[in-house]
Protein backbone atom coordinates (compact mmCIF):
# COMPACT_ATOMS: atom_id res chain seq x y z
CA UNK A 1 0.00 0.00 0.00
CA UNK A 2 1.51 3.32 -1.01
CA UNK A 3 1.30 6.56 0.97
CA UNK A 4 -1.72 7.97 -0.86
CA UNK A 5 -3.79 4.83 -0.27
CA UNK A 6 -2.83 4.86 3.42
CA UNK A 7 -3.94 8.48 3.76
CA UNK A 8 -7.26 7.78 1.98
CA UNK A 9 -7.99 4.82 4.25
CA UNK A 10 -7.34 6.93 7.36
CA UNK A 11 -9.51 9.77 6.04
CA UNK A 12 -12.38 7.40 5.26
CA UNK A 13 -13.17 7.05 8.97
CA UNK A 14 -13.76 10.80 9.34
CA UNK A 15 -15.67 11.63 6.16
CA UNK A 16 -19.35 12.30 6.84
CA UNK A 17 -21.78 10.44 4.61
CA UNK A 18 -25.06 12.05 5.73
CA UNK A 19 -24.41 15.47 4.16
CA UNK A 20 -26.74 16.96 1.56
CA UNK A 21 -25.49 18.08 -1.84
CA UNK A 22 -24.35 21.69 -1.38
CA UNK A 23 -24.06 24.11 -4.28
CA UNK A 24 -22.85 27.70 -4.46
CA UNK A 25 -25.84 30.03 -4.06
CA UNK A 26 -27.73 27.77 -1.66
CA UNK A 27 -29.08 29.12 1.61
CA UNK A 28 -28.08 26.69 4.33
CA UNK A 29 -28.29 26.29 8.08
CA UNK A 30 -25.13 24.94 9.68
CA UNK A 31 -25.42 23.55 13.20
CA UNK A 32 -22.15 24.45 14.93
CA UNK A 33 -21.26 22.74 18.17
CA UNK A 34 -20.19 25.28 20.81
CA UNK A 35 -18.77 24.60 24.25
CA UNK A 36 -19.60 27.08 26.99
CA UNK A 37 -18.12 26.15 30.32
CA UNK A 38 -18.89 22.48 30.80
CA UNK A 39 -21.93 22.47 28.54
CA UNK A 40 -22.17 21.88 24.85
CA UNK A 41 -24.91 23.25 22.61
CA UNK A 42 -25.65 23.54 18.90
CA UNK A 43 -25.81 27.05 17.48
CA UNK A 44 -27.35 27.51 14.02
CA UNK A 45 -25.55 29.68 11.48
CA UNK A 46 -27.72 30.52 8.50
CA UNK A 47 -26.49 32.15 5.32
CA UNK A 48 -25.69 31.88 1.62
CA UNK A 49 -22.90 29.68 0.31
CA UNK A 50 -20.62 32.02 -1.67
CA UNK A 51 -17.70 29.63 -2.25
CA UNK A 52 -16.70 25.98 -2.15
CA UNK A 53 -13.14 24.72 -2.14
CA UNK A 54 -11.21 21.52 -1.71
CA UNK A 55 -12.39 17.97 -1.96
CA UNK A 56 -12.64 14.89 0.18
CA UNK A 57 -11.78 15.50 3.82
CA UNK A 58 -10.51 19.02 3.01
CA UNK A 59 -13.81 20.26 1.55
CA UNK A 60 -14.78 23.69 2.87
CA UNK A 61 -17.62 26.13 2.25
CA UNK A 62 -17.76 29.87 2.85
CA UNK A 63 -21.11 31.02 4.23
CA UNK A 64 -22.12 34.69 4.25
CA UNK A 65 -24.87 36.34 6.24
CA UNK A 66 -25.75 39.90 7.20
CA UNK A 67 -26.03 40.41 10.94
CA UNK A 68 -27.09 43.82 12.30
CA UNK A 69 -26.16 45.49 9.03
CA UNK A 70 -22.67 43.98 8.91
CA UNK A 71 -21.70 41.19 6.51
CA UNK A 72 -20.21 38.20 8.32
CA UNK A 73 -18.48 35.36 6.49
CA UNK A 74 -17.44 32.08 8.01
CA UNK A 75 -15.50 29.23 6.50
CA UNK A 76 -16.62 25.77 7.59
CA UNK A 77 -14.72 22.55 7.04
CA UNK A 78 -17.60 20.32 5.99
CA UNK A 79 -16.27 17.14 7.62
CA UNK A 80 -15.08 18.77 10.86
CA UNK A 81 -16.39 17.23 14.09
CA UNK A 82 -17.65 20.65 15.26
CA UNK A 83 -20.23 20.68 12.46
CA UNK A 84 -23.25 18.88 13.87
CA UNK A 85 -25.57 19.26 10.87
CA UNK A 86 -26.03 21.00 7.55
CA UNK A 87 -29.51 21.63 6.16
CA UNK A 88 -30.28 23.17 2.78
CA UNK A 89 -33.16 25.63 3.14
CA UNK A 90 -33.29 27.09 -0.37
CA UNK A 91 -31.57 26.45 -3.69
CA UNK A 92 -30.18 29.57 -5.33
CA UNK A 93 -29.48 30.16 -8.99
CA UNK A 94 -25.81 31.04 -9.41
CA UNK A 95 -24.05 31.42 -12.74
CA UNK A 96 -20.53 31.36 -11.37
CA UNK A 97 -18.45 29.34 -8.94
CA UNK A 98 -17.60 32.14 -6.49
CA UNK A 99 -20.15 34.78 -5.45
CA UNK A 100 -17.70 37.30 -4.03
CA UNK A 101 -19.58 40.10 -5.80
CA UNK A 102 -22.29 39.81 -3.13
CA UNK A 103 -19.88 41.50 -0.71
CA UNK A 104 -20.33 44.79 -2.55
CA UNK A 105 -24.11 44.61 -2.63
CA UNK A 106 -26.51 45.85 0.03
CA UNK A 107 -30.08 44.96 0.94
CA UNK A 108 -32.34 43.38 -1.65
CA UNK A 109 -29.56 43.35 -4.25
CA UNK A 110 -27.97 40.41 -2.42
CA UNK A 111 -30.93 38.12 -3.14
CA UNK A 112 -30.51 35.25 -5.59
CA UNK A 113 -33.28 33.75 -7.68
CA UNK A 114 -34.55 30.45 -6.41
CA UNK A 115 -33.98 27.33 -8.43
CA UNK A 116 -36.51 24.52 -8.42
CA UNK A 117 -34.84 21.85 -10.56
CA UNK A 118 -32.68 20.57 -7.65
CA UNK A 119 -34.35 18.95 -4.68
CA UNK A 120 -33.75 20.17 -1.13
Spatial order of the strands in the main sheet? 4-3-2-1-5
Approximate helicity band: under 10%
Query: What's the count of strands?
Result: 5
- Span from first to last CA? 39 Å
Number of helices: 1
pLDDT < 50 runs, ≥5 residues:
none
Provide the residue-averaged pLDDT.
94
Name the helix and strand elements from N-terminus to C-terminus, one letter apiece: HEEEEE
**Quaternary status:** single chain
In angstroms, what is the radius of gyration?
16 Å
Structural class designation: mainly beta
Largest sheet: 5 strands, antiparallel
Strand content: 35-45%
Q: Give the overall shape, derived from the CA principal axes.
A: globular
Model description:
The protein is mainly β and 120 residues long. The protein has one helix at residues 3-11; strands spanning 27-36, 39-53, 60-67, 70-77, 83-90. The longest helix has 9 residues, at 3-11.
Amino acid sequence: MNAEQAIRSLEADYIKTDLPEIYVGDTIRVGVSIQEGGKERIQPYEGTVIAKRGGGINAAITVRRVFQGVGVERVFLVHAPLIASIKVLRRGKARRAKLYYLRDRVGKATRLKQRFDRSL
